[in-house]
Amino acid sequence: MKQYKNSVLAFFLVVSGLANSSENIGLDLIKDMTQVGQTARMTYLFWDVYDIRLYSPSGQYERLKPFVLHLTYLRDLDGQEIAKRSLEEMQKQGFDDQALGDIWLTQMQSIFPDVSKNYSLYGVRDEKGATRFYDSEKLLGEITDQNFTKWFFDIWLGERTTEPKMRMKLLGEK
Question: What residue stretches are annotated with the Chalcone isomerase domain (predicted)?
Answer without folding.
Answer: 45-172
